[in-house]
What we know:
Shape: rod-shaped
GO molecular function: DNA binding; sigma factor activity
Protein name: RNA polymerase subunit sigma-24
Family: Belongs to the sigma-70 factor family. ECF subfamily.
Keywords: DNA-binding, Sigma factor, Transcription, Transcription regulation
Strand content: under 5%
Pfam families: Sigma70_r2, Sigma70_r4_2
Amino acid sequence: MADWEHVLDALVRERGAALVRYAALLTGGTAEAEDLVQEALVRAFSQGRPLREAHAAEAYVRRAVLTVFLDGYRRRRRWSGVRHLLAGAETTDGPEDASAARADVHAALATLRPRLRACVVLRYYDDLTVPEIAGRLGLSDGTVKRYLSDAIHALEGALGPLPVARTLDVTLLPTGRTR
C-alpha cells in the first residue's frame, strides 16, 4: 500500500464517525452527511497532494467537507432561481385521477350507438386513419367522418368540452400504455 492509502485507511477507521457527525451538523441528516464525507474524501485524496499524516489529512478533509457543502448549497440556490424556467410541474396527477377519467370515458362510450363507438375506438384506441376505419367497417370515408363528429359531440355532452379530440387518446389507453 502507498503512504496515502495507509493515511486514508487510518483516517476513515479512527475519525470516520467524527467526520460524519461534523458533516451531519452541516447537512442536517446522516445519509446526506455520509455522502458529503465520501465526496470530500475522494476530492482530498485524488488531488495528488501528499497527505502523509492523519492529523493533517483530517483537517484537509474537514475543509473539503465544508467546501463541498457550500458548493452544493450555492448550486442548489442558483438552480432554484432558474428551475422555474426549465422544469415542469413537480407534482403529477395520481393514478386516482386517471382512473376516474378512464371510468368516465368508458361510461360515456357506453352511451354511444354501436357504430359511433366502433369508430371512436378504432380511431383513438387503435390509432387507425379514417380510410382504414372505413375499410374495416365497410363504410365510406365521409360516413366515418360524420360518425366521429357525432361521437365527439355526444362525448362532449357527457364529459364536458374536449379541447382537442386527441384528448381521448390518453383516457382510452389501457393502463401502462402511452403514446
